[in-house]
Amino acid sequence: MKRKHTLLRTLFYASMIALAGITGCDKDNENDGDPKNKDANQYAIALVAGTGSAQTTYIQGLAGFDIASLDNGNATELAGNGRMLTYNGAAYVSVYNSPATMTKYTFDNTGKAIKAGELIVPGAKTYSTVEFVSPTEAYASVAGGLAKVIKFNPSTMERTGEIDLSSILRAEAPVMYYLGMKARDGKLFMGVFYEGAGFVEKYNDTAYVAVIDLATAKVEKLIKDHRTGSVFDAYNSFAIDKNGDLFVAALGYTNRPSGVLRIKKGETDFDPSWFFDLDAATGYKCRGVSVFDNGLAFTLALVNPGDGYEINGPSHHFYRIDITQRTSAGKLAGLPDVYGSGGAVMRRYENDQLLFVVSGKSENSIYSYQPANGNVNKKITLTGGRCSGFDKLP
């Protein structure tokens, strides 16, 4: 069990540069008059190239994704391994470093990034998860031993408060991770992972979620469920469907299956009558959940359990699941296996397509999927590196 969590921690630090969540791509900017590029501020994308300490993050704006390939010719360089998400017309990028710094960017109509502010938290190395509530209210959990959630104004990037997490600390579990969060009905639901001294995995057979009241900025309670394992995914642990039900994905361990829990609309406890056993549905340990319309959802399954460290190449595959029926339709045919450290990265593109980020053994790319007919096609080859975030801007 310790070996498995060491892998999870390794994957987490490899991909956790923090900001929770992804969509868009365009051609090389060879000609400023090219109509494809004249409005390249509709989407943003981040690509990461290099390995270890010699990594660079490249961000740029795009007009769309109907292109064959994408490089970094029009991108802005950021030193280090960075993660990006978007909100209300801007991109927010955090690069793993000390102190934790989240930088806000807008883009001109050529796709060039323009710095619009930053949020710095001394004592932390990065932002584990970010949740935007409104143009003036957002929350960020931080990594580096700080037991707090930072409240900030995403418009001005000013720090406006903090939420003390000391009430959920445990002396016997000195290491904590706050991974994944979602705001709903005036509450902030946040995944909590406890770890004992010396990497003792004492609590990984239970899912813990902190329920925070946003009006008072206080932890209301800590809820737990023994039917599955830890909530340990910064980007895809939480999802809300059109009915307002909140789904929480947790990892599986030796004595617990990976699975999805539900917190019904208007409630703040796990629904004891509802559990989606992903091990039973897919036949594999799974991580994360992304929910779309009419029960359509996806998870990332470890299809090569014998190579969990992915020494021999990608070991995960996207699986289509039905969150309503709690069933699996199997592997998403037409997609290659992917490295699991980035989580299940996908977003809706236009009305008829979903886009999947594929970090493969020999190529990084974005694939399109049409739920109506099941068609899968490679959309873009990413020659500039692996994608660490993309989404619509406006």
TrEMBL record:
Stretch forming the signal peptide: 1-20
InterPro entries: Quino_amine_DH_bsu (IPR011044), WD40/YVTN_repeat-like_dom_sf (IPR015943)
Keyword Oxidoreductase: no
UniProt keyword list: Signal
Taxonomy, superkingdom: Bacteria
UniProt name for this protein: DUF4374 domain-containing protein
